[in-house]
Amino acid sequence: MNLENVKYDAFISYRHLEKDMMVAKEVHKMLESFQIPRSVRKAHPELPKKISRVFRDQEELPLTTNLGDPIMEALKNSEYLIVICTPKLKESMWCQKEIETFIGLHGREKVFAVLAEGEPDESFPPQLLVDDAGNPIEPLGADARGENASEVRKKLQIEGMRLVAPMLGLNFDDLRQRHREQKLRRLIALGSGLVAALIIFGAYMAYTALTIQGQADEIRAQNAELVEREKLIIEKNEEIRAKSYDIAGRYEKSMAEQAAILVRKGRGMDALYMLRNAMPDSMDKTDEIPYLAEAEKQLVEALNLYGEGSSMVPVYTYHDEGVRSIAVSQDGQYFACLNENGRVSIIDSDSHELIYEDSQGEQNIDDNITFIGSDLFAYCTSGKTYIYRISQKERVAITDAKSVIATCPQQRIFALGSDKNLTVYDMDTLSEQFRINLFGESKSGFFSKMEFSESGNYIYAMLSDREEYGFTVKGLITDIVDVKSGEVVFSNENYGDYLCSDISCDDEMAICSIAKLKDVTNGSLYDYELHAYDFRAKKEKWAKKAGSDSVKSLDVVEGDSGKLIFAWNSSVAMEIDAETGETKSSVGGVGTIRDCVKLSNSGTYFVATNYGETYGYLLGKESLYNFNYIKYVPTIQMKNFAFSRGVYMSFLNEDYITQYRAVPGKNMEEIDELPEEYLSLYDAKKMIDDGEISYDLPNGYKLRKKNATIPELLNEKGEVIATLLYCVGYDENENVLLFTGSAGRNSKSRIASYDEIIQYADEMLEGYVPAADIDM
Q1: Which of 321, 459, 466, 626 has its CB surrounded by the most CB atoms within 10 Å?
Q2: How confident is the model at residue 1 (pLDDT cuts 50, 70, 90)?
Q3: What is the DSSP string of 53-68?
Q4: The pTM of the whole model exceeds 0.85
Q5: Given a cut of 70, is residue 775 above it in pLDDT?
Q6: Range among 211-220, 502-511, 675-684 rated most confident
Q7: Do 334 and 351 form a contact (C-beta atoms < 8 A)?
Q8: Alpha-carbon distance 326 to 657, whole Å?
Q9: Rounded to an integer, what distance in angstroms lies between the CA atom of residue 235 and that of residue 535?
């Protein structure tokens, strides 16, 4: 396109970005549509009627791969340059070149800036901020900043005259005044026409009014009747609203009471769901659902909002029909459930998403479901043993037989025992490492127990030489296998109607808990024994009576004074000297022990009873200490228990699993150092003990002393919404800070408003599916 002879009033330079292009287009339209006021044209007859030609490359240039020549011609033939300025303008080498070329051709005084985005110091190009001598100047420009085209267009009604005035050689204030006068004259002319029309219309209406006066009286009487009826309807609606409000309040109170029961049953998420469906979204929303302090109190309790960070609280409830078994992955990322109908499910413990499900029919899947490390999950049916790899969403049938499974995460291996064959596999590839036939010439029997030593160097396997449980027991056969050589290094047979409870071994000795049937006529009578073997010396070290109950779990550990065996049954936890079999200590009296989990190699154990009480046990201390670790455990008997990055429980005659985790109070945070205006944890507790607690808190909250040790938080109506462990202080912005629990001297938590509590509850409930018995 040849632009040599085309003259332009202005050239618009801009980046081809969405915002820049939009502002450039609006500036273009404003310039070419601007009407010079008639009074200005009379005073300056030499001026054109309007600005006729403005160059903008999207409007003027054809599609071409070489834009240089047409743009250079347009720049030469343009009177003024208008630059659309944004913070990203400086990044355009082409725009910088256009500015520099125009200044070289026509001078700096004919360049105008239009601020489209950002502030002048970050958006104006450097060429417009200094004169030819390098002195700082303020460029002539217009402010066209706006979120959209409509706002920009409105801005340009006035700001556009800052561009037009110098282009016409006029003063901006004079042009704006003339423009206003012209606009005013148009409004006056329009108003005069309207006044005349109104006079005519008024005369007509006066005549019409006389003719319809009679009709108006009749309508007025009808209106009075309608007003009376409307008043009655309003009164009736108010009565209905009041009844509805009262019903909603009673319903909300009932739901709060039911939620408290659910929390006590370990169903915190179901309690949250029930409460949120009965509570108002805001304390201000009183036209539909009333605000009740008891409902907020239960919500705070279910959320553990001001709880200690060291306590475990129910964070999820997984519902299934008749929970038979629970398993948790090594890293605690997944948990699995087997139900009474033979369905096994894997659930992500963070997102609670269902990862995998398999249903083999009622009772066909064995209760011994197992995670192998953190990525593999194993379960057995009557005909096959399956391995499911979570990361690849892939299931394989690894053997055509039911298996006993043992894992060794340290060596990245696991073992399956089935049909008297012990097979060791690589965890990562599922490749077979070696296979060996165990238990000598035994013609019948099945694997009953199998376990790796902690180092993974040995496998301790035990076969029950019988086919079914009952009274036809022949005995137990023990084999210990060296994992590196794949050979049996120790074998032992015990005949005499034995059952095995548990086994354990290290790299030197093995120990097993057995029950020997005393009287065939009465199957409940057993002798309980412990047997220890030195398998390197290929002999039994010792055997001893184990009390009146079967030992359910064994662990060979290194104590301060030598090797120990930690054992427990349903009533006591015991430390036994591994060399002599002597019982060094025996601790009980805490109820029926349900499970005992090793927490560290230093000999720390986590003990849980049938009713959810939790205790700690440290080797050598000869006592259990109360953890107070798990809150809101149901007062019903536990059926299943699992521990890994949290606790998982199921209960007798209940169709759910409750997941417990240590969750700090909402907004809990650690700070390096407390300013002087904070109350320290020590000072807060001392004030409570001294009876000095009496605070009026910001935002309508109050704190009062309930008794010598526990304060209560009250809402703006003076109703109790939380019982607090310690005290409250202020930060520099008058925010209330709640010091809680034993999480440290610098632990703090801001007291949440009602709206924040509701928002937190909604976040927790996102995607949650309640149990079928939560009928809302």
Answers
A1: 459
A2: very low
A3: -EE-HHHHPPS-S--H
A4: no
A5: no
A6: 502-511
A7: no
A8: 9
A9: 92
User: DSSP characters for 602-626?
Assistant: TTEEEEEETTS-EEEEETTS-SEEE
d(CA 370, CA 390): 13
- Buried/exposed code over 403-421 (b: 16+ C-beta within 10 A; e: otherwise): bbbbbbeebebbbbbbebb
User: What would the two tokens of residue 661 be?
Assistant: 């985790």
Torsion of CA 292, 294, 298, 304, to 10 degrees: 90
Q: Which amino acid is at 757?
A: I
Q: What is the mean pLDDT of the chain?
A: 78
Token pair 């509850």: residue: 761
Residue bearing tokens 């976040």:
763
In the chain, what is the straight-line distance between the N-terminal and C-terminal CA atoms, in Å?
74
pLDDT tens figures, 57-93: 765 444 344 456 788 888 999 999 999 999 999 888 8
Strands (E), 546-655: 553-559, 562-568, 572-577, 583-588, 593-600, 604-609, 614-618, 624-626, 638-643, 647-651
Q: For tokens 């939560």, name the residue.
A: 774
- The CA distance from 379 to 394, in Å, is 14
Q: What ranges in 600-748 are assigned the alpha helix state H?
A: 681-689
Tokens of 565: 């065996």
DSSP state of 448: E
Residue 585 and residue 711: Cα distance in Å, rounded? 42
* Distance from chain centroid for Cα 186: 62
Residue 437 is inside which H or E element, if any?
A: strand 432-437
Residue with the bigger pLDDT between 487 and 669: it is 487
Comparing C-alpha atoms, which of 259, 266, 262, 260 is closest to residue 646? 266
Residue 15 and residue 24: Cα distance in Å, rounded?
9
Q: Is 237 helix (H, G, I), strand (E, B) or coil?
A: helix
**How are beta strands 312-319 and 656-662 bridged, if at all?**
antiparallel
Chain segment 551-590, per-residue pLDDT in tens:
777 888 877 778 888 888 888 888 888 889 898 888 877 7
Cβ(448)–Cβ(455) below 8 Å: no
CA–CA–CA angle 509, 512, 513 (5° rounding): 150
Please give the pLDDT value at position 83.
95
Sheet strands side by side (includes 432-437): 404-408, 413-418, 421-426, 432-437
The β-bridge relationship of strands 78-85 and 8-13 is parallel
In angstroms, rounded to a whole number, what is the distance separating the alpha carbons of residues 378 and 371? Answer: 6
Q: Say if residues 619 and 557 touch (Cβ distance below 8 Å).
A: yes
Q: In what order do the strands lie in the sheet with 562-568?
A: 553-559, 562-568, 572-577, 583-588
For residue 531, the cross-strand partners are 512, 543
- DSSP type of residue 697: P
Q: How many CB atoms lie within 10 A of CB 400?
A: 10
Q: For 680, what's the count of Cα atoms within 13 Å in the CB-facing half-sphere? A: 9
Q: Closest Cα to residue 617, out of 555, 543, 531, 547? A: 555
What burial class does residue 696 get, using C-beta atoms within 10 Å of its C-beta: 0-12 exposed, 13-18 middle, 19+ buried? exposed
DSSP secondary structure letter of residue 467? S
Q: What average pLDDT does range 129-146 have in this prediction?
A: 87
Please report, as a single letter, which amino acid is at residue 584: K
Q: What is the structure's pLDDT at 63?
A: 39
Instruction: Take residue 343 and report the two structure tokens written for it.
Output: 């369905």
Give CA–CA dist 267/260, Å, rounded. Answer: 10
User: Which residue is listed with tokens 């299934």?
Assistant: 320
pLDDT of residue 81: 94
Task: Kindly state the tokens that stand for 22.
Answer: 């939009």
Beta bridge partners of 380: 385
Assess contact for 397 and 362: CB atoms under 8 A.
Answer: no
402, 382 contact by CB (below 8 A): yes
Cβ-contact 551, 581 below 8 angstroms: no
Taking the C-alpha atoms of residue 121 and residue 87, their distance in angstroms, rounded to an integer, is 9
